[in-house]
Amino acid sequence: MAFKISINSLDLCLFKISLNFERIEEKRRSYRPSKEEKKRTLVEMKIVIQLFLLLATFAALVCSNDDDNDLLAINRKHHQQVMEHLRTDFDPCSQYYEYVCAKRQSSDDDNSEAMNMEIKEYLEKTPLEEMPEFGKAFRDFFESCMQEDKFDWSKFIQRVEQEENMKWSLFLTPNSSNRHEGVVLYWPSTLATFRKYGLNDILLSVSRVYRNATNFWLYLDNPLTLDLVEDDERHEYQQAIKLPPEAMMTLEDLWPRISAFEEEVENIDSLRWSGEEGTFKFNQLPYPWLQKYIGTLMESQDIEANVEIVISDMAYMKALDRLVREYGNDFICRYLEIRFIKHLGMENDKRGSLNKCMSYAKRFMPMATEWIYGQIHPELIAEIPKIHEHFEQVRYNINKTLHTHNNGIIAPEFLRKLQTMHFKVGNLPQENTTELLENYYLRLKTNSGDYYGNYLKLLKFHRDVIDDMSESYKNLDNLQADKAFFFKTPNIEAESDIHPQYIANMNLLILPLGVLRPPVYHVGFENLFKVSSLDTLLGVSVFAAFPRLYKDLSIYAIPQIVGITSLHSSFETFFSSLPADEMEKYLKMFDLTSLQQLQQLFFANAIQHQCTWRFYKSRHVNTVTNHLAEFIEAYDCKALKLLRKF
Length: 646
Prior knowledge:
Structural class: mainly alpha
CATH topology of the domain at 96-121 and 378-443 and 486-644: Collagenase (Catalytic Domain)
Membrane topology: Single-pass type II membrane protein
Helix content: 55-70%
CATH architecture of the domain at 96-121 and 378-443 and 486-644: 3-Layer(aba) Sandwich
Number of strands: 7
Mean pLDDT: 81
Strand order of the largest sheet: 1-2-4-3
Radius of gyration: 33 Å
Shape: globular
CATH superfamily of the domain at 96-121 and 378-443 and 486-644: Collagenase (Catalytic Domain)
GO molecular function: metalloendopeptidase activity
Low-confidence stretches: 1-21, 61-65, 469-484, 486-495
GO biological process, one term: protein processing
């Protein structure tokens, strides 16, 4: 039987309840407890408080124990990973690189993929309204990349033609050459167009120096190097760019001329610095093609009023003018198109995976990557003071080592640089970061359905960063200081590795947040792992200024000096101040039986996270360890001990 109540009876019930509450309240106001009742109440309150404190203490102990167990598990897992990757069939005394690194490649790939998956999860779970515009641009580029199975050069070339209202000479046929009214194929315009997207090292290198917000010098230099188009690359280009059968010049015809042309470019490059410098107004430039190049490059700017053009080497420019007139406009246009494709990199043709697309996004937008990674790992901010302490200890130990074992090799200038070197964790300012990044990426407008358009916009964006062409930079109050933290070369590198950066003109070492992840760093790592990996990495990184001062040393000598000094420094930091009880803790934690085994673990962890870095190739690592007394003792390398006696 269903329970029913009428509205009237409900009102009556509520009225009676309210009367009862009024009577209870009246009694409470008139009630006066006795002294015994007050005393009893106080005792009961004390008991309740004590019970509460006891429960709180117990809960804290439980949580603390859970935290301790978690940290123990993190460190034991990392120890297990280090040990599992050792190749014990190699002799550590003679082949330490192989001993530590032979099984590392797949693990490093897994680590990179783990970071990429973290970023992907952030992009998927963060609502659009909570994401800054540059975060949306990062997501647009990644999502548009995922829509393409591979990089289609024909689609990309069509997108360039559409964006720049130009035609590619490579694809012209006798029937198509006159169909494009208003489109003039002239190689200076082609070179200027491609320079917008980063091609700045072919025939001419252009840079600018601002005198104020609108006036600047435009410097024209001969390129520093020429990365030749090799004969054996022709097949790759034929696979990537499918020319029509009736094309006016085939790649087979073009390739021998490219080789001959580049040989002559190298010959005139030998004239470097043999000529005088010349300064011109735009209308005074000595070559019509140079006027066309500068005019296309500057677009709508008032060149005559605001720009002075400085030709650094008039002899080179005269020889270049002779060469381009000799080879003719049609060939130079086609040559520049081949160079542009080479500049972008043939590896674009091999993509087709989530991990590859995320790596491209990280390469193109490193500042956005850093910001996103900071959102994913806010716990790293609290670690910054501790990491500064690591840096200071590294600086102190390296300085001490170099003063003790100098032997006249180390220049005083480097020691001064070391003493005054600035250090920053994270390559973004810690104040107003989002606002500054919004300004930095202000002109970048992306579309999640237009991969090739996004690709072009990011290429141009990187060129604009270097040229200061973006109006958004001029709106920043502290341009030079802000740009220091937004430093990125315009050359899009083949890898997306995040690594320390040294900015020479500021003597500044920057450690991006993205470096601070396993196997280099984890908040929960024991000091053994932090010092052996992070301090060794910082030790290598502070030497970034070193090669600039020692250009006469061989390419092998510098890495050996750097490796020995940095590894010795981190070893000294940890073991010189290791108390007995701390050592016992590590031995028990990792089931070790001796100090010697602990030292071996230190060295393996110090090297293993650098296995895929170019700096640490087999020859360098093995030479470093063979010359380090602490390593020789740790691994009881008898032959090396004997050699050291002589």
